User: What shape does this take?
Amino acid sequence: MGNLNLTPQEEEELLIILERYLPDLKSEMANTDKKEFRKSLKEREVFMEDLINRLKH
Assistant: This one.
């Protein structure tokens, strides 16, 4: 997969979207009983947190 070039405005919008979705993801993780599903959500959380940190710097 190639690189994704975003304008500063697109980066800002993406950051807003990720930060708004992250609390819902954490809630979904806390409320699921399925171990495999929780694991996949945790992996997504780690990915999103990394992406958020990269967008902020």
The chain has a mean pLDDT of 94. Residues 29 and 37 are 8 Å apart (CA to CA).
